[in-house]
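Recall the central idea of this unit: under ordinary conditions, the amino acid sequence of a chain determines the structure it adopts. In this exercise we apply that idea directly, starting from the sequence alone.
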Amino acid sequence: MENMKRFGSSWERRKFLLAAGLASTLGSLRPGNLYGAYLAGRHGESYRALGVRPLINAAGTYTTLTGSVIPPEVREAMAEASRYFVPLIELQRAVGARIAAMLGVEAALVSAGAASSITLATAACVTRGDPGKVHKIPDTTGMKDEVIMPKSHRMGFDHAARAVGVKIIEVETTEELEKAINQKTAMLFFVHIFEHRGKINRNHFIAAGKRHDIPVFNDAAAELPPMTNLSAIVGEGFDMVCFSGGKGLRGPQASGLLIGRKDLIEWAHANNNPHSDTIGRGMKVGKEEIMGLLRAVEIYHKRDHEYDQKQWRGFMKRVAKIVGDVPSIDTEVYVPGPGGHPIPYLRVKWDQRKLGLSYSECYKALQDGEPRIEVNNTERGLELASYNLFPGEERIVGMRLREILLDAAKKA
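Accordingly, the structure predicted from this sequence is:
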């Protein structure tokens, strides 16, 4: 029992492979047999019947790759929730209160995803729960309808704020920030992962919001781990913070978490489903996702995060060892600095001209092979993320990558 508590979801992932009889045998198999054994134990037939091939995810928690795999406990919570009818608003409030208590924050809301949280947070600041305004947006006539962002933080996801009808005001310095604030300013919008890009740090941003009594929002969608971010970012002074439910938390992919000040979260509720004639009506979160995310947060709090980091680093080291004897190949296990996710990655690079193989060609060969493998194709080389690998998959990734590189070396 103690070991299960230690390993948390990692234990469940290991147990998955053990149940298939793979964990003890993968290390002794030749590449062809290795791939066959893996596919036999984790085949995803329901997807293959549709012509969609499942993949080994050494790229990251991207929505385009379906985020992460939920652990059995979350699946069980969702299945249990699906068996009964409940008043949805009561459930939203009860789960929000439970999550808020766990995190030590004033209030929480389960949204349809981090982008949904951005929309609801913006709507909360624009309408402040006024029913007339709630029903009127995105027509913001007569309302505070400006949201200030550091120019270096602009991204595709700020469309979720613009959907409310607001105008994004770009600033680059603290002086510009102060000048931009006026009677039309509804919210200050900060993107956690982009802090290193600009001249305005989080403390300056928070202080400006406090001075002018303007809510300050932080998009921290993919900023887990570390676990401390669940409480620490609000603790720094941000009024609202959002996280994806289907990335680091390993909850339902169609879920998110908005936490922060009680009044602001209450106003976000006013703009949310299941209320009709609201901007959030189409951002429906079912009872299954709500209960699934609650269970995911509970599990995340109990995980042995130090063990996770050691296991992930071990994955990357094993891949590096497998490809390390290929001529002209350089490998580096690293944890990204500011702007990156604090998990172990592996960078594999080579002289593309000398080997006669470009990074893009290798990337495509990994995708086209069986099993299908996804990595990050960059100008710096192929970059592998450890977070979504199941135990044993790192050897498959390493062997497949080694095959492609050796084949190119023979032809060069």
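The chain has a mean pLDDT of 92.
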